[in-house]
TrEMBL record:
<dbReference type="InterPro" id="IPR036979">
    <property type="entry name" value="CM_dom_sf"/>
</dbReference>
<feature type="domain" description="Chorismate mutase">
    <location>
        <begin position="1"/>
        <end position="91"/>
    </location>
</feature>
<dbReference type="InterPro" id="IPR002701">
    <property type="entry name" value="CM_II_prokaryot"/>
</dbReference>
<dbReference type="GO" id="GO:0009697">
    <property type="term" value="P:salicylic acid biosynthetic process"/>
</dbReference>
<dbReference type="GO" id="GO:0046417">
    <property type="term" value="P:chorismate metabolic process"/>
</dbReference>
<dbReference type="Pfam" id="PF01817">
    <property type="entry name" value="CM_2"/>
</dbReference>
<protein>
    <recommendedName>
        <fullName>chorismate mutase</fullName>
        <ecNumber>5.4.99.5</ecNumber>
    </recommendedName>
</protein>
<keyword id="KW-0413">Isomerase</keyword>
<dbReference type="GO" id="GO:0004106">
    <property type="term" value="F:chorismate mutase activity"/>
</dbReference>
<dbReference type="InterPro" id="IPR036263">
    <property type="entry name" value="Chorismate_II_sf"/>
</dbReference>
<dbReference type="InterPro" id="IPR010951">
    <property type="entry name" value="CM_bact"/>
</dbReference>
<dbReference type="InterPro" id="IPR051331">
    <property type="entry name" value="Chorismate_mutase-related"/>
</dbReference>
Amino acid sequence: MTDETLTRYRQSIDRIDAALVFLLAERFQITQAVGRYKADTGLPPADPGREDRQIARLRELAQQADLDPEFSEKFLRFIIDEVIRHHAQMQDGSAG
């Protein structure tokens, strides 16, 4: 027998997961453009000051949203590290 309440919760989670994937895809499309720009202009792949400001901003937003700031920082750090890796590859000419 199916628990209808649990099914509705899971359907909501599935929709949120889909939205997250599409938002991440859009974010990475933009960061790829940033990486190409940085490679073309000789800017370094990482910007530690910007990263620190973004993490502080996200921690504040997490607190406002009643989300664990540590979790939000780990999540953003993972994304930032992946973006930097892509940017470094672009600088090396090994990504396109």
